[in-house]
What we know:
The complex is a heterodimer of chains A (303) and B (261). Chain A has 303 residues and is an alpha/beta fold. Chain A contains eleven helices and 14 strands. The relative contact order of chain A is 0.14. In chain B, helix 3 crosses helix 9 (213-226) and helix 5 (109-137) crosses helix 6. Chain B is mainly α. The interface between A and B is medium-sized, with 31 and 23 residues.
Amino acid sequence: MPDVIEVQNLNKHFDGKPAVKDISFSVAKGEFFGLLGPNGAGKTTTIRMLYGFTPPTGGTLRLFGLDIRKNWRHLKSRIGVCHQENTLDPDLTVEQNLHIFARYFSISKKVASERSGDLLEFFALTHKKSAKVMELSGGMARRLILARALINTPELLILDEPTTGLDPQSRHQVWEKLIALKNNGLTVLITTHYMEEASRLCDRLVIMDHGRILVEGPPAELIPRHAGRHVIELEGPDQALRDYVIKHNIEHDDLGRRMILYVREGEELNDTIRERFCSDTCIFRNSSLEDVFLRLTGRELRE
Amino acid sequence: MIDWSAFSWRFLRVWERNLVVYRKIWKVNFITPLLEPLFYILAFGLGFSGMIGEVRYGGTSLPYTTFMAPALIATAVMWNAFFETTYGSFVRMYYQKTFDGMLATPLSLEEIILAEIVWSATKAMGATTIMLMVLGTLGFVQFPSGLLLIPTALLGGLAFGAVGMFFTGITPTIDMFNLPIFLFVTPMFLFSGTFFPVSNLPGWAQPLALAFPLYHLTELARWLSLGANETPPAISYAYLLLFFLVFAILGLKTMRKRLIK
């Protein structure tokens, strides 16, 4: 069986300026795949090419083994897209948003009304079905966008920052629903700025920057590979610490007023550092995907 | 080149969406075409026609209100269709992101744009039907020929909807629709033989008026409701059809350029 997504040497230029450069990855059926990167890394452009909105400049892009450029209409009927912005139809009620959207897929009125009933139930929106979209809270609107993306029972769900701007309660609720969908075997591609979200949900992910893929792998492998096992953050590092770090060849980032050490499994330096250098503030914690992300993409602001 | 695979009957789903929204406030949508002709007939018929008397048109002499009444239908078609594909479509495209949502479904951009144009013509046709009832009751429209104004309004609506969509494709912000409205639509509204015959215009301006699609729609409206006309109806029908086709293609091209990056 072909991979659900197969991307090879995909390129996108805008007026000659490259936005996506030669990226390749594939997503297998049932996988939860993450596309991470700072703003402007090329994530949304990649996603737009995946659902047939933006035509690629070069490279191969296949979904379910079919070329998106030739089979766009058929392929678009098999995927669900949850946009970054709210693209709900404000002229329609909650329920009508699902009904009318189903009609765009040529789903019969009867099936559309059954499915929208089920989806509103699943996303805890049944009590809001006659409400106007404008009256929904951020979390409810996001759940409705998700429900709408599932109206055609897609085999691939594409989520562009599905939890941006949500409160923790709503975010956890969305995660719960996404995990339930994943357990049903749905293939999902997600972009997010929340590393915790990516660690929690993704089986595998890539980190992109400046239109290229920097690393690829399961979060549990990427963290030890790029940020060690533990992290020690020290405020106001002195020369003695700097010498010590270099002498013992410890992975680190020197930020001037702060130093971050990435300690590998088996390196028993925690105690030494705690005793000798932790006069000021010291933070000991486990390495996270955020460390990997910042180490690979740098700490400068992007916009 | 036109990619014909981008067109299918699926565009009717987008048309259906607009119909659903229209029906939500149908009462409001019905009031304008119901009252507008009454206001004009009252204002011009009672207040104005006494000062003017008869108008020479198409070889006959017509009371001023009779001369003007069919033009009300033609101008309503223009305003309805043009506003729908400029302000209406712009809001759906830019502010509501409705097209973005639609483009994640098996719909093509071409189908969405075509549906918007056809919808604008449908709305114009709806307004025409209501106005026909009002003006017919007042005796300004002959029947059954007047009924042919309904499909004629659809063709006129397609022409004005298409040119509106072209402006939506090239207009950067919604405020800038003022330009095509004041430089294109308003002159057309005033100088298309609507409120006075084109023969009253200075000689150099007459061919310009003949290039306005509203001139041809007004001609057809007079022909169908009064039996009087100055330009052969076949020419007017052909001109409106050509105008629609040219601007539909331009509208599709500019919208594709604007939206698909």
